[in-house]
Write a structure and sequence with these properties.
It contains 14 helices and three strands. The protein is mainly α and 410 residues long. A three-stranded antiparallel sheet has the order 1-2-3.
């Protein structure tokens, strides 16, 4: 009993180890992709360079994971607190998504309004802002988990559980989809997966899937550039210098690395040939400089992170935490898969970043928050299991059985 109790807490520590490995790879690759032939990548003040900003984000992200894993423990233990927190987070996320559509508040980027401007010249003369769609990912997962599990909820009930959860998913998908189709599709996939895992009726899911497919089709045709990307994907070799330039350059970048890569920092596609080499297409640069083996290492780390998330789900002591852990693990796994699919031209181009690796603070800090919650869920499950094992002794067997019954109810 003692050996098992000491081994299980290592699962939550493994979440931090894998996450830090991915962030370290991302920091190194951001430094590499920021290299320039006419100036140094490490100029002063350092925090105004891409590498310096990413280093600050990584340090803050690590602190966010640690703090969240501590603060989330008592919050997750209280059904009323986690229900209210989910509701507040959802309201804030929706308000931020709406605010991002207001031109006076939004910070436009290449014709889209995905950023919400918080301050101008706040730190070192740099603008401060974030992407509300990143917050919407966590808020949607939390509110759906709450609606489907709290207060004796029955996921098979259409009016009491399925309909409210579907409305919450639809609100997030529609608000995000006005400016970011890729993230909207991601949210839709996560939402449907959570409804399925929670035990909703298949006929309800079938209707929702049909309605959702129609809604995503409308969003696809609402913006001409989305159709242009789809056309470019279908006719990849007909316009190599135009619409198909980015996916073809991504394939060229990956192919030039071979199995072992050209060497860290020795890639050439980042010098203006591959657009978005620091953000959405950073995985292609990883393959160019570290080879197929380097790309496989990154994929393996993401698989390990998803596996740890699913282990946290199995160890979770409540229905809410189980569904929450699944939603967070699904978010990490599905977004990683979508980004890699885009970079390898398996799917049309979308603006999906690679979690914990792509340059940028909004995505990195959001996923650090999610991983902190996963670590807290895993730690709580391990703690409850240890208490149950310790209680399983003469004179205390009834208490131990009662705790295990509460922890495993689904």
């Amino acid at each position: 009993m003692t050996l098992e109790g000491h081994n299980k807490p290592a699962q939550s520590a493994a979440v931090f180890i894998v996450a830090m490995a991915l962030m370290a790879i991302g920091l190194v690759m951001v430094a590499s992709t920021s290299a320039s032939l006419d100036r140094s990548s490490f100029t002063w003040p350092l925090w105004r360079t891409p590498f310096g900003r990413q280093m600050v984000f990584v340090l803050i992200g690590f602190a966010v994971m640690i703090v969240t894993s501590r603060l989330a423990m008592p919050l997750l233990a209280s059904p009323e607190m986690r229900r209210r927190t989910s509701q507040v987070a959802f309201v804030i996320a929706v308000a931020c998504l709406i605010a991002a559509l207001i031109p006076s508040l939004a910070s436009p980027h290449r014709g889209s309004h995905r950023w919400l401007r918080l301050a101008i010249g706040g730190i070192g003369g740099m603008d401060i802002g974030f992407q509300p769609s990143e917050l919407a990912k966590l808020a949607m997962v939390a509110i759906v988990a709450s609606l489907l599990t709290e207060r004796g909820a029955d996921p098979r009930s259409f009016r009491r559980c399925f309909l409210p959860a579907s409305i919450a998913i639809a609100v997030c998908v529609l608000l995000v989809g006005m400016e970011d189709f890729g993230t909207a599709a991601l949210l839709a996939g996560i939402g449907v997966a959570m409804l399925f895992v929670a035990g909703c009726r298949l006929r309800h899911l079938s209707v929702l899937s049909a309605v959702g497919a129609c809604g995503l089709t409308v969003l696809l045709y609402a913006a001409p550039y989305r159709l242009a990307r789809l056309t470019a994907y279908k006719e990849l070799w007909e316009d190599p210098q135009g619409k198909a330039y980015q996916p073809l350059q991504s394939l060229t970048t990956i192919a030039s690395g071979g199995w072992l890569g050209m060497g860290l920092g020795s890639g050439v596609q980042k010098y203006g040939y591959l657009p978005e080499s620091r953000t959405d297409f950073i995985f292609a640069v990883i393959c160019e400089e570290l080879g197929i083996f380097g790309g496989a290492l990154v994929i393996g780390l993401f698989c390990a992170l998803v596996w740890l998330g699913l282990r946290a789900m199995l160890a979770a002591p409540s229905r809410f935490e189980r569904l929450l852990a699944f939603g967070l693990a699904a978010t990490i796994g599905l977004q990683s898969a979508m980004n890699i699919a885009v970079v390898t031209v398996v799917t049309p181009t979308t603006g999906i970043s690679l979690p914990l690796i792509s340059a940028g603070g909004s995505s990195l800090l959001t996923f650090c928050l999610a991983l902190g919650v996963l670590a807290a869920i895993s730690a709580r499950g391990n703690k409850m299991a240890s208490l149950s094992l310790e209680a399983d002794v003469p004179g205390r067997r009834v208490v131990g059985m009662a705790r295990m019954g509460d922890a495993t109810a689904w």
